[in-house]
Specification:
Blueprint lengths: L8 H15 L14 E5 L9 E11 L4 E13 L2 E6 L9 E5 L2 E5 L5 E5 L2 E5 L2 E10 L5 E12 H12 L6 H18 L4 E3 L15 H10 L3 E4 L2 E2 L4 E2 L4 E2 L3 H4 L14 E2 L11 E6 H8 L5 E5 L5 E7 L12 E5 H12 L8 E7 L2 E7 L7 E2 H9 L4 H8 L4 E3 L1
Parallel strand pairs: 1-11, 14-23
Antiparallel strand pairs: 1-10, 2-3, 2-6, 2-7, 3-4, 4-5, 6-9, 7-8, 9-10, 12-13, 12-24, 15-16, 17-22, 18-19, 19-20, 21-22
The chain binds zinc ion.
Length: about 400
């Protein structure tokens, strides 16, 4: 029953909601012009920890002595308290060991990026990648070691990497530029000391998209431009598809009315080419739903001007339908939507423009849009760019009270 267009929506949605988590981490905000030159990004933060990876030459290992390795695939493994870099081919007993150290710093050579193979994915990284040993307790409280990878990368390469991960191939340059400005806002808010990760907790980042030279050009073109309100970089909220109208942050996140005055609700019919423009219909078996939310039908008790539910009425935990007086509580609809995604999969309701009804032994959920609906609508930005709009016009549409500071 899940609409096929919503496949991979999990990643999509996580990306869209990422900035919500991200921006809440930093209380003191730098002025508009402060921008880090370099960013440290912890790689593979959402992946299973590993004790070995492959790196591809030509590369340089920077340390007390610098080692240069030619073309080839090299195995980097964790052994005891040290990392060992050795040839990935050859007899097991006679593999050549190039380096043994507790920490290694790699960079690609001859104007090429450093390629790293981790699990099934191979990604390219600009700057350097520092590999060290991380120790943490596992679920059984046993101390385990694994590899820790941090990409020390120039700001422009990082911005381009995030834009490539956020927008699909074929996105017009002006839409990519608008996205780049929002990534700038994120960096301007964190400052130079921030250590980010490559998950949606901060922003999706998969290194250098070597097949997307356009995103690098966009990042270079906008430079350090940020969107500002009251001389401070704005909270750079964005989402995949609003499906008609964006929402005010204070409504969706149940905040004080004076919060985020620049995150207003604006009309948007530019996102009609999005796979999330049409509604998706999904079902959850009622017993599974009831085990999480209680054995009664949820009810939308308040909507905003875009039609997004703001509040829902739910049973309190432990309530069952054979109890005459079901205890109900009003909860933020955004929290309900997030919990649906976390418990039953993000494909069930890709957007928070949703409604539901009970059909037999199922809860049927109808959803439109992709993401939380606040800030920039990415498919809308791409639609505006297709109509010839410039990135500053796109940003002005979605953030009408914010000013572009170049
Ligand atoms: Zn839209």
């Amino acid at each position: 029953m899940i609409d096929t267009t919503s496949l991979n929506a999990g990643l999509e949605i996580l990306i869209r909601v990422s900035v919500v988590v991200f921006v809440s981490l930093f209380a003191s905000i730098a002025p508009c012009k402060a921008m880090p030159c370099y960013v440290d990004v912890t790689l593979g933060a959402s992946q299973k920890p590993v004790s070995e990876i492959f790196v591809f030459g030509p590369l340089q290992i920077c340390g007390k002595t610098t080692i240069t390795l030619n073309d080839g695939r090299y195995l980097l493994q964790l052994r005891g308290n040290a990392l060992r870099l050795l040839a990935s081919t050859g007899d097991k007993q006679q593999k050549r060991v190039y380096c043994v150290a507790p920490k290694m710093e790699f960079r690609g050579l001859r104007n090429s990026y450093l390629k790293i193979e981790r699990g099934r994915s191979i990604r390219a990284y600009a700057g350097t990648v520092i590999v060290s040993i991380s120790r943490a307790n596992d679920s059984d409280n046993l101390l385990v070691s694994h590899l820790m990878l941090v990409n020390h990368v120039g700001k422009a390469d990082y911005v381009a990497g995030v834009c490539a991960a956020e927008l699909p191939k074929g996105a017009r340059l002006e839409a990519v530029k608008a996205q780049a400005v929002l990534v700038n806002c994120m960096l301007a808010r964190t400052g130079a000391l921030a250590v980010l990760n490559d998950t949606t907790q901060n922003a999706a980042y998969m290194g250098v998209a070597t097949d997307r030279p356009d995103v690098r050009l966009a990042a270079q073109t906008v430079g350090d431009a940020t969107l500002c309100f009251a001389e401070k970089p704005i909270h750079p909220y964005f989402h995949s598809t609003c499906a008609g109208r964006t929402s005010r942050a204070c409504d969706i996140f149940q905040l004080d009315r004076r919060s985020y005055p620049y995150l207003q609700s604006v009309e948007c019919h530019f996102c009609q080419k999005s796979p999330f423009w049409k509604h998706t219909v999904s079902v959850i078996p009622w017993p599974q739903y009831a085990a999480v939310f209680g054995d009664c039908l949820p009810a939308v008790s308040k909507k905003d001007e875009a039609g997004r539910p703001i509040e829902v009425s739910l049973c309190t935990a432990g309530s069952v339908s054979n109890t005459r007086n079901l205890d109900r509580t009003i909860q933020p609809a955004y929290d309900f939507w997030m919990k649906i995604g976390q418990k039953f999969g993000w494909n069930v309701a890709p957007g928070n423009l949703f409604s539901f009804q009970r059909k037999g032994n199922y809860l049927e959920i109808e959803s439109r849009g992709g993401g939380h609906g606040v800030g920039l609508c990415q498919w809308g930005a791409m639609g505006m760019a297709e109509q010839g709009k410039k990135y500053d016009e796109i940003l002005r549409h979605y953030f009408p009270l914010a000013k572009l500071s170049k």
